[in-house]
Amino acid sequence: MGEAAALIARITARQARIGVIGLGYAGLPLALRYAERGFPVSGFDIDPGKVTAIRAGRSPVHGIADSAIAAAGIAGFDMGAGAAIAACDALLICVPTPIGAHKEPDLSAVRDTLAALVPHLRPGQAIALESTTYPGTTEELVIPALAAAGLEPGVTGFALYSPEREDPGNPEGTVARVPKLVAGATAACLAVAVALYEPVAGQVVPVSSLAVAEMAKLYENVFRAVNIGLVNELKRLCHGMALDVHEVIDAAATKPFGFMPFRPGPGLGGHCIPVDPYYLAWKARGLGLPSDFIELAGRVNEAMPGYVVDRLRDALDARGRTLHGARLLILGLAYKPGVPDTRESPSVEIFRLLEARGAILAYHDPLVPRFPLTRRLGGIAPDLASEPLTPEFLAAQDAVLLVTPQPGMDLDAVLRHASLIVDTRGVLRGVALQHDTSGDLGAAPGQAYRATIIQA
């Protein structure tokens, strides 16, 4: 029996040990899914805090219960655990792939991971890259890693690519429910990929090459980035024409074909949409090919925090105030509702812009108790903590900027006690329209609301 057939047989019998490298928002749910389906699972991470939590049966990721970790029985290891690496039949790499200062791909985490694996690889193992990256990465990095360990792809070792499609905070956006693209360096590698992911995925979708799977993942996120850029530009146009952009979108969405509604916001955040399009644009530049839509959408989306600050400035100007010295409260530091993740969050960029203009800043986010250290801000606000939304505190603010409406956020208190609210997502649009179609919310019969609402 060849190595491929032997590995597939072990997977089919649930005897194959699965190693997941990177126990974050993508890797940990994947590890739990394999454990749930009866596989022995080892989890690896360079963060000792995550490894310690896993060993103690505690969850290091928001939204995953401690009980799920305790029940899964995942073995936790750091990346120096060579014997644990060798014991795995499949090694699934779920590490970050950010962009550098000049928006070039930063694959250092993938390279470091592969370098740590090579000394401990053995015949019969599969390496599956799940991190989002440009077409050609698996061939350029994973296959040479196998070769460095003396393994031949498709014969004694197996190179796979299967991009993660987790959507944190969305119970429908999990590996158990979402179709999973799979690709392999050879036909035998693809057969291993199908066998490896069929027990855990909602559906397995084989494609013809590693590059097709890598490109498909990028296209998924480029599609969203371009359409978000378009609707963000539409929002600015609608504001200039005194139109309600959300009413425009709702009207267009009544068309049952050829249209998909996207919603505007204060900019892009998270680990995918603000980052992944630049992987494709970088690859295109290397080939001398245009990527005009991608780069234009990136510029539009990156400009949105500045646009929000300009709208806030204008609203304060109308009240005889300036940004300098203004007491401002940002609601929501995370990049989207329901998660504590502040990576690339537009709230953080808005904070930076306002801080540079001399504003006196505070924030409230039920899921982010302390201001995070970030790549862009560093330690600019290391002692800042989430403020409670007391009547006195809200009344003392010159403006409240609603960026990310988190579950549990008392927006009713904000409406009752704040004097000016700048709403970047249209969350309070219905309240404003109910009381004053101009968008200014004054005291209405039976209501104690005092805020003026400005859409941004």
UniProtKB/TrEMBL annotation:
It comes from Humitalea rosea. Belongs to the UDP-glucose/GDP-mannose dehydrogenase family. The keyword Oxidoreductase applies. Keywords: NAD, Oxidoreductase. Gene3D superfamilies: NAD(P)-binding Rossmann-like Domain. This is UDP-N-acetyl-D-glucosamine dehydrogenase. Pfam families: UDPG_MGDP_dh, UDPG_MGDP_dh_C, UDPG_MGDP_dh_N. Residues 329-430 form the UDP-glucose/GDP-mannose dehydrogenase C-terminal domain. InterPro entries: 6-PGluconate_DH-like_C_sf, NAD(P)-bd_dom_sf, UDP-Glc/GDP-Man, UDP-Glc/GDP-Man_DH_C, UDP-Glc/GDP-Man_DH_C_sf, UDP-Glc/GDP-Man_DH_dimer, UDP-Glc/GDP-Man_DH_N, UDP_ManNAc/GlcNAc_DH.
